[in-house]
Amino acid sequence: MPTTTILITLIALLIFSYVIGRKRSIAVSSFQKGNKGQRNLHSLPSYYGYMVAIWAGIPALIVLALWSAFNSSIITSLTISGLPEAMQAESRDTLGLILNEVKNLADSGDIAAETDLVKKNAAEHYHRLQAISSLAKTAVVFVVALLGMIFAWRLIKPETRARNTVERVIRWSMIVCASIAILTTVGIVFSVLFESLRFFDAVPPSDFLFGTRWSPQTSIRADQVGSSGSFGAIPLFVGTLLISAIALIIAVPLGLLSAIYLSEYANPKFRSIAKPVLEILAGIPTVVYGFFAALTVAPFIRNMGESIGLSVASESALAAGLVMGIMIIPFVSSLSDDVLSAVPQAMRDGSYGMGATRSETIKQVVIPAALPGIVGGILLAASRAIGETMIVVMAAGLSAKLTINPLEAVTTVTVQIVTLLTGDQEFDSPKTLAAFALGLGLFVITLLLNIAALHIIRKYREQYE
Amino acid sequence: MSNSTQIIQAGLKKRYAKEKRFRLYGLISIIISFAFLLTLLTSIFSKGLPAFQQSYVKLDVELDAEVLGISRDSSENEIYSANYSKVIDNGLRTMFPGVTGRKQKRDLKNIVSTSADYTLRDKIIKNPALIGTKQSYWFLAKDDIDVFMKGNIDRNLPESDRRIKDYQLVWIDQLLAENRLEKRFNTVLFTNGDSREPEQAGLKGAIVGSIFTMLVTLLLSFPIAVAAAAYLEEFAPQNNRWVDMIEININNLAAVPSIVFGLLGLAVYINFFGVPRSTPLIGGLVLTLMTLPTIIIASRAAIKSVPPSIKEAAVGLGASRVQTLFHHTLPLAMPGILTGTIIGMAQALGETAPLLMIGMIAFVAEVPGSILDPATVMPVQIYLWSDSPERAFTERTSAAIMVLLGFLVTMNLVAILLRKKFEQRW
Fold it and tell me: How confident is the model over A164-213, as pLDDT tens digits?
C-alpha cells in the first residue's frame, strides 16, 4: 500500500478509535450502580476518545516515519550485498551507476526483457525487496495501531485520568514543535560541517582560507590541462565585502536619516503613510531586485561611466551593491526608528530646556543615546547584505577577480554556491563540496554578526527599561 | 544685554539654518528612497505591460486530406500524427507566392509559432468533418513578429542591425494591410506551462507549483509554529536552559541567509532522507524551516497580548491550562497569528535562492498535478526567464514579476484588513 493510502486509512482508524473510546467511557460509567449518569467519570467522555486515538495513532505514525526514512538506504545496501563480489569491489561511482541502472530497470516493470543476467537478477532482487518492504510496512503499521487501540480501550475505567494523559501528550508535542528550531540549527551545522570536512580532506584549509585564486573547474581526466582546480576563497570574500560595503554606504545614511525624520520631525499623518511605503521595499522579492539590477541599473551605470570616459564592466559591483543598498534601506530605517523612539522623552526635554535646537538635540543627545541600538541594526543589515543571493546571482559576475574597484565585475560567496550546486552534481568532487565549505563560512560570519547585533540591541533595551 | 546673550544671538541665525538643513536632509533621504521604489516599479511595469498582449496571424488553410495524409474516418491516432506543418506551410506559400531561397522559406514558416500545428490538430480532432474544407484561423505569431508589433524593433535601422529583415517587413506590411495580423489579450501567459519558445511560454505551471509549495509550507509551518509559540508563552518554565536555547535559536534562524536553508535541504532532505528533488514537497519542507521563525515570533506577540485576566478567569472556573489555551487564549490570539502567518507565507512565496539548490530550477514544461511532480515556482520562473537570451522573454519576465507582485499585494492587503477588522485593544 502506498504511504498516502496508509495515512488516509490510519486517519479513518483514528476517528473510529475516538468514537469507540468515547462510547466505552460512557458505557463504563453508567454500569456503576447508584450514580446519576456519567458523574463518576474522571474526565469528559471526549478525552477518553482522544486517549484511545492517541494510543492508536502516535506509535503507528512513529513506525511509519522511521520506516519511510530508512527504507531506501536499507534496500539499497541489501541490493548491493546481493550483487556479485567483483562488482561490490568497484569504486563508489561505478557502483552508484550500476545501482541506478538496476533501479530504473526495476521501476520500468520490464525486467524480463533485460539481457544482462547480473542486472536482471539484481533488479528482480530489488523489486522483491521493495514489495516485501511495502507489504511489511502496511502490516506493521496497522498491527501497531490496532494494538495501541485495544490497549487504550482496555484502560478505560471511571477513575482513569484520561484528560491528564491527553494534556501531557499535547504538552510534549508542543515541546517537540518548539525544539524544531534547535533541530534546524543542528541540521544546518551538521550538513555544512560534514560536507566541509570532506572538502578539507581534498583541499587543505589553509589553501581555502588564504589562497587568492579561485577556479573550481576540476577535470574529468587526470591528465587534462588545469586538472586541479584551485580553491582560494579570498577573492570571493573580498567581492562579498565590496558589494556589501557599497550597499551599506547607500543604505545606512539614507535609512538612518529617514528614520530620524520619521521619528523626530514628521507629523503622524505623514509618518503613517511613509513608513508602510518604505516597508514595501523590504517586501519586494529579491529576484525582482536582481532583474532590476541586471536589466536597468547595470546598463545605466555603464552608459554613465562611458559618457565620462570610464570603462565599467557590464556586471559591475557598483550596480549590484547599489540595488542591494536600496533593498536594505527599510531594515536600517525600521530598526533605527525603533531604537530612536525608545530614547526617553525626558532626555530630549532636558536638552531643549538648555536651549538646544531640535537638530542639536538629535545629534548630541538622541543619537549618542541610541547609538548601540543603531549599530546593532547596521550589523543586522550587514549580515543580510552578505547573505543576499539573488541580486548578486543575477547582477554580479562569475569570474573571481581580486579587486576593490567597484566598476569591475566581482563574484561573491553566494554566487559561487549557486553556480557550484545548480546543474549536475557528483557528491565526491571537491567542486561540489566547496559549495558547502563556502556555506559554512557564510553561516559562521552571519551567525557572529547576528549574535553580536542581538546582544548589543538587548543590552541597549535593558538600559532604558 | 550680557555678553553671553550677545554671543548666543549672533550664532542663532546659523543654528537655525543648520536646523533647517538637517531637517531637509531627512526629507530628501525619504524622497530618494521613494524615488528608488518608483523607478523600480515603473521600469517593471513599463516593460511588463505589453506582455499581456500577444500577436496573432490569420491564415487560410486548405485542410486537404491528401496533404494531411488522413481522411474523415481515420482513427484519432492517425489524426494525431498528421502532417499539419505542411498544411500551414502551403497556406503561407499561397499568400506569399514567389518566395525563394532556403533562408527566406524558413523565415516565411517562422511567421507563425510552432504551436500552430497543435492548434490545427486540436481543431480537427474536435471536428474531423473539417478535413477537405478550406478554413481561416488565427494562429499565434512567432516571437520576432510579436516583438516588432510591439514597437521594439525600429524599422529605420539599417537592415543588418535588425532581427526582422526587409523582406519580412514586406510580409508584415501585407498582413497588416489585409487585417491578418493583430494583437489580442495574452491568454497563453496564464494557460500554458513553460516553453523554450517565448510566444508559447506561460506561467500556469509556475503558479500551480507555487500553490502546491505554499500548501505544503502552510500545512507544516502553521501548526508547528502555533504550538511552539504557545509553549514558549504559556508553558515554558522560566530560566530553563533548554527554553533559552530554543529562544536564541529562533532569533538566529530568522537572520540566517536563506541560501543556507537550501544547503540544509540538499544535504539532509535530499541526500539523507531521499525526498525527491524538484518537487513542491521538498520546496515546502525547506520553506517551512524558513518561515517558522517569522510565524513563531508573530504568534508569540499575539498570544502575549491576550490579557491575563481572561486566562485567570478560565482557570478560576476550573479549566486546566491546556483547556484555557485551546478554549480562550488561542481563539482570541487567532487574528494576530493569522496575520503573522500570511506575512510569513508572502515571504516564502517570493523566496528563490534556497529553491535553486534543491532542483526547482529544472525546466518543467508540464503543469504539476501533485506535490510529488517536478515543478517550479513563480520566483524561480522569473529567474529562468530573465536568463533567456530572447528579447521576447524580457517582457514576459516583467509580466511574471507583475503577477507575483499582484499575489504578494493581495496577501498583504488581506493581512492588513484582518488586523484592522479583528484587532482588539484590551
Answer: 999 999 999 999 999 998 999 999 998 889 889 988 988 888 888 888 88
Give me the domains of chain A, ranges plus CATH numbers.
3-160 (no CATH), 230-464 (1.10.3720.10)
**Nearest residue on chain A to B230, alpha-carbon basis:** A174
Q: Which of residues 178-197 of B touch A (CB under 8 A)?
A: none
Residue A295: its chain B contacts at CB < 8 A?
A: 43, 47, 386, 394
Q: What is the dihedral of CA B396, B399, B404, B410, to 10 degrees?
A: -160
Q: What was the ipTM of the complex prediction?
A: 0.90
**pTM, entire model:** 0.88
Q: Give bridge partners of residue B138 from the DSSP assignment.
A: B58
The whole-angstrom separation of Cα A386 and Cα B353 is 14
Q: Is pLDDT of A37 > 70?
A: no
Between chains, do B352 and A286 touch, taking CB under 8 Å as contact?
yes
Distance CA B43, CA B63 (A): 45
d(C-alpha A106, C-alpha A134), whole Å:
15
Question: Which residues from B are below 8 Å from A253, CB to CB?
Answer: 29
- The reply to whether A381 touches chain B by the CB within 8 Å rule is no
- Confidence class of residue A221 from pLDDT cuts 50, 70 and 90? low
Average pLDDT value for chain B: 89
3-state secondary structure of A234: helix
CB atoms within 10 A of CB B161: 8
Residue A68: Cβ-neighbour burial (10 angstroms; 0-12, 13-18, 19+): middle
**Do the chains contact at A439 and B263, CB–CB below 8 Å?**
yes
Tell me the domain boundaries of chain B.
Answer: 3-49, 53-186, 204-422
Interface with A, mutate which of B24, B30, B44, B393 (most A CBs under 10 A): B30
Chain CA centroid to CA B222, Å: 23
Q: What pLDDT band is residue A265 in, cutting at 50, 70 and 90?
A: very high
Q: How many angstroms separate the CA atoms of A163 and A155, rounded? A: 13
CA-based nearest distance B397→chain A, Å: 9
Q: Do B264 and A187 touch (CB under 8 A)?
A: yes
Query: Which residue of B20, B264, B329, B395 to mutate against A (max A Cβ within 10 Å)?
Result: B264
At A199 the three-state DSSP class reads helix
Q: How close is the nearest chain B Cα to the Cα of A287, in Å?
A: 6
Q: Determine the residue among A7, A165, A180, A198 to mutate to test chain B binding: the one whose Cβ has the most chain B Cβ atoms within 10 Å.
A: A180
Looking at residue B362, the DSSP 8-state letter turns out to be: S
Going from the C-alpha of B165 to that of each of A329, B65, B145, B149, B159, the distances in angstroms are 47, 35, 11, 14, 6
Contact B292 A261 (CB under 8 A): no
pLDDT digit string (tens) for A86-110?
777 777 777 777 777 777 777 776 6
> pLDDT for A338-367, tens place per residue?
889 888 999 999 999 998 999 999 999 999
- Kind of pairing, strands B134-140 and B53-62? antiparallel
- CB contacts, 8 Å: B19 with chain A: 357-360
Is B34 in contact with A421 (Cβ distance < 8 A)?
Answer: no
**Alpha helices (runs of H) in A267-316, residue ranges in sequence order:** 268-283, 286-292, 298-307
The per-residue b/e assignment along B326-350, b for 16 or more CB within 10 angstroms, e otherwise, is eebbbebbbbbbbbbbbbbbbbbbb
Rounded average pLDDT over B60-74: 79
CATH architecture of the domain B204-422 equals: Orthogonal Bundle (1.10)
CB–CB contact A191 B263 (8 Å) = yes
Report helix, strand and coil shares of chain B as percent, to nearest 5.
Answer: 70, 5, 25
CB contact under 8 A, B252 and A292: no
